[in-house]
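Q: Please design a sequence for this.
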């Protein structure tokens, strides 16, 4: 008869998990502090208090370690976002709860991506793939607010992309705290910076959902299709 403890991890397995998590934490700190390009496996090993050969027992390369750190950061962020989505309240509060989770993660964990060489397409692709999952959560909040009459008709997917872009850019401003970046983004999303009339070159039109939507007049662009 099998023991009831057969499925429990052994002491060695638990120790490996602890050491792997410590290694990921150390790598996260170094990548955030120095950036991906400037970081070496030796730097990470020193930060973790282990030898370089030990790093390679867990990860085949610096890139594999970076991807593990990145993936864990996004996984943790998504858990916090889903918890925030369970809370009710006004549209502004629901957006703010998401922003105050996203902004610190961008600043702490994704700063190393900012200076990655343009040729490092695999890492940029990794960010784009995971970014879309964050956008979907913002989009859901916006679409719910539109159905409830809390938000005007607008392309919710585009709004989510713009908000993510503003947060990403905002964390590059070292003179702003995470809370200030989040407040600025939500303030811009809800209120804008201009008057309510349509800017030059744009014209308001009626939306199928009611109200008006501001659209950009084409300026000599030939052909149809969408922007890449």
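A: Design:
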């Amino acid at each position: 008869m099998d023991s009831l403890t057969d499925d429990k991890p052994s002491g060695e397995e638990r120790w490996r998990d602890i050491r792997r998590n410590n290694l990921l934490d150390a790598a996260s700190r170094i990548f955030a502090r120095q950036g991906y390009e400037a970081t070496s496996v030796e730097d990470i090993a020193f930060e973790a208090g282990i030898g370089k050969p030990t790093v390679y027992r867990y990860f085949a390369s610096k890139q594999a370690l970076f991807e593990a750190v990145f993936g864990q950061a996004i996984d943790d962020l998504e858990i916090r976002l889903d918890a925030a989505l369970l809370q009710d309240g006004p549209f502004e509060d629901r957006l703010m709860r998401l922003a105050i989770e996203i902004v610190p993660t961008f600043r702490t964990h994704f700063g190393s991506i900012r200076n990655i060489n343009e040729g490092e397409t695999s890492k940029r692709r990794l960010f784009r793939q995971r970014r879309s999952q964050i956008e979907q959560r913002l989009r859901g909040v916006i679409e719910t607010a539109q159905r409830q009459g809390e938000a005007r008709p607008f392309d919710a997917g585009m709004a989510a992309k713009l908000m993510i872009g503003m947060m990403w850019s905002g964390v590059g401003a070292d003179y702003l705290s995470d809370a200030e970046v989040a407040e600025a983004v939500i303030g811009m999303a809800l209120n804008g910076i201009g008057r309510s009339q349509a800017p030059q070159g744009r014209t308001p039109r009626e939306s199928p959902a009611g109200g008006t939507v501001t659209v950009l007049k084409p300026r000599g662009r030939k052909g149809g299709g969408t922007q890449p």
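Q: Thanks. Anything notable?
A: Confidence is low (pLDDT under 50) at residues 1-5, 201-228. The chain is about 60% helix and 5% strand.
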